[in-house]
Amino acid sequence: DADVTQTPRNRITKTGKRIMLECSQTKGHDRMYWYRQDPGLGLRLIYYSFDVKDINKGEISDGYSVSRQAQAKFSLSLESAIPNQTALYFCATSDAPGSSGDYNEQFFGPGTRLTVL
Amino acid sequence: AQSVTQLGSHVSVSEGALVLLRCNYSSSVPPYLFWYVQYPNQGLQLLLKYTSAATLVKGINGFEAEFKKSETSFHLTKPSAHMSDAAEYFCAVSAPYSTLTFGKGTMLLVSP
Predict the structure, then answer these.
(1) Is B84 helix (H, G, I), strand (E, B) or coil?
(2) CA A46, CA A33: separation in Å to the nearest integer?
């Protein structure tokens, strides 16, 4: 079974609809992240959470919100989807700093392809 | 703040040729550096990482990268390209206790 799973894998929706993308992990990591990928722009950080009670905005948080329901679950919501939110969305996890340092190696889910019409 | 510049959005090589993907970084503190690979319709997979130990880092699938502080570079190389290496490659930088910042990616095309 995959360590980081995302649901749904594909979603087509209409402008103005509320959408939730879900991420679950079995790696036991404290830290979770949401990114969006657009062709030619790489990955850009939307939100991140270093533990269940911690939520932080990333580079491009406008139009998005998140919920950290448990250590293993981190959801991304688009309150009112718009066409320029059409993208590939990735969830990632990483471990908390250990005795050997904080390398921030991240482990990625398979992605959710979202199309907003 | 950190930033990454990947030179060349597309790189084309022939099978068996040297692969060189360029990455330059900017960081106000000693960085951690990563190369990730993304195969079609998949998530990102870590190829290798530099974490202030050896400057020449070996990764999976025959790839390696050398950290050069004086040049602020972390270029990815492989002596002989294989068709299965065709993918998009991302360089990323992180400061200690900070988040990852990704480059825009380089698509590697391998021709027979």
Answers:
(1) helix
(2) 8
Contact A104 B43 (CB under 8 A): no
Closest-CA distance, B51 to chain A, in angstroms, reads 7
Identify any residues that bridge with A101 across adjacent strands, giving them in sequence order: A98
Q: Among partner residues B32, B45, B104, which is closest to A42 by beta-carbon distance?
A: B104
**Tens-place pLDDT, residues B67-107:** 999 999 999 999 999 999 999 999 999 887 778 999 999 99
Output the CA–CA distances (angstroms, integers) from residue B8 to B4, B5, B65, B73, in the order listed. Answer: 13, 9, 17, 14
Is A110 close to B96, i.e. CB distance below 8 A?
Answer: no
Beta-bridge partners for A5:
A24
Q: What is the pLDDT of residues A76-110, one digit of tens each?
A: 999 999 999 999 999 999 987 765 556 678 999 99
SS3 state at B46: strand
Does B49 sit within 8 Å of A40, measured CB to CB? Answer: no
